[in-house]
Amino acid sequence: MPSPPEPQAGRVVAVTGACTYLGRELLHRLEEDARYGRVLALDVRPPPEVGGKVEFIQVDLTQPTIDSELATLLATAKIDTFVHGAFLSHPTHAVEWAHELEDVGTMHVLNACSGVPPRRFVMISTTLVYGAHPKNPNFLTEDHELRGHRSDHISGRFVNDKVRAERQVERFAREHPDVEVCVLRFAPILGPTISNMFTRFLSRPVAPVMMGHDPLMQFVHEQDAAWALKHAVDSHARGAFNIVGKGVLPYTTVLALLGRVPLPMPQLVARQLTKLLWATQLVGSPPSFLDFLVYLCVADGGKARRQLGFSPRLSIKRTILDFGGVAPEDGATDVARAQA
């Protein structure tokens, strides 16, 4: 595995979404890395990691004038690397606000970077942008079409806003070839501390199973994900990269490892019930999520291994058990944390 190039001493890094799991982990790693001189945490509220090299700057990407404020910050702080991670980890019923944050917010960020280009731009995305579809191949490469959800209905906006954000970044990369643009598409992240749509879903004692379907599932451990992001900031790699864990397992096997009770349901019944529960805000998973319990959405991590130098350290079984609170008998999780 190739080692990332040594970053220039004193680099200034700005991070949007500083209060997310990956944002906080990146701040922590940059704070400990003597090769970085200044870290700007951009969010609506300060993260716990503020102090030392980490400076909090209040930024609300839903505000219409924020692109000019960001451009001023890019120029005055001489930002070398801009990490854009202000994306939701679980769906919300406030879909218009979510659209302003993710789709329009990305436009504001890129407008600012167009005026005062950083040397490097890294964006956090998800493998969910490929969408769960009956014609998906066994492993989706970075060249595969970003289908998102088939409908742009409210329940599909969680994924489709991220698809639109990626397309904006792709256009930005074409128009600014001097900027090193890197997009990390993370498989669903699991771990003992992270909270997202999948961790909430898999925390329930009972889980629906679509009758006649048992798709392969793919995750990445939270510590592997945090290490991959820091590695991408250090590197000069360009383009999109799938950041996935080691191995895949059938959905029902995932449920068995976690001790969850499978509830077989016909698709039509499950969709109608989920639609009702989502509308009444009794569950946090929209009806569009059921597609991932029916169709395959598994990404290939070969490009990240070859060009980015990222290889996951933890297997899917270890990742699931760590999320479920099972003590690691082999010590794998502790080793990963020590190396991250």
Description:
- This protein is of the alpha/beta class and 340 residues long.
- Helices cover 37% and strands 18% of the residues.
- The protein is globular, with a radius of gyration of 20 Å.
- The model is unreliable at 330-340 (pLDDT under 50).
- The protein has a domain at 11-193 and 218-246 and 299-313: NAD(P)-binding Rossmann-like Domain (Rossmann fold, 3-Layer(aba) Sandwich).
- The strands form four sheets. The chain has a seven-stranded parallel sheet with strand order 3-2-1-4-5-6-11, with helices on both faces. A two-stranded parallel sheet has the order 7-10.
Secondary structure blueprint with pairings:
Blueprint: E1 11-16, H1 21-32, E2 36-43, E3 54-58, H2 66-77, E4 81-84, H3 95-115, E5 120-126, H4 157-175, E6 180-186, E7 189-190, H5 197-202, E8 206-210, E9 216-217, E10 220-221, H6 222-234, E11 239-243, E12 249-250, H7 251-258, E13 261-265, H8 267-279, H9 302-308, H10 316-323, H11 332-339
Parallel strand pairs: 1-2, 1-4, 2-3, 4-5, 5-6, 6-11, 7-10, 8-13
Antiparallel strand pairs: 9-12
Helix pairs in contact: 1-6, 2-3, 3-4
Task: Name a few traits of the molecule.
single chain; 340 residues; globular; Rossmann fold; alpha/beta
Shape: globular
- Unreliable spans: 330-340
Compressed to H and E, one letter per element, the order equals EHEEHEHEHEEHEEEHEEHEHHHH
N-to-C CA distance = 16 Å
Rounded radius of gyration (Å): 20 Å
Structural class, from helix and strand content?
A: alpha/beta
Mean pLDDT: 90
Going by CATH, the homologous superfamily of the domain at 11-193 and 218-246 and 299-313 would be NAD(P)-binding Rossmann-like Domain
Could you name the CATH topology of the domain at 11-193 and 218-246 and 299-313? Rossmann fold
The biggest sheet, with number of strands, parallel, antiparallel or mixed sense and barrel status, is: 7 strands, parallel
CATH architecture of the domain at 11-193 and 218-246 and 299-313: 3-Layer(aba) Sandwich
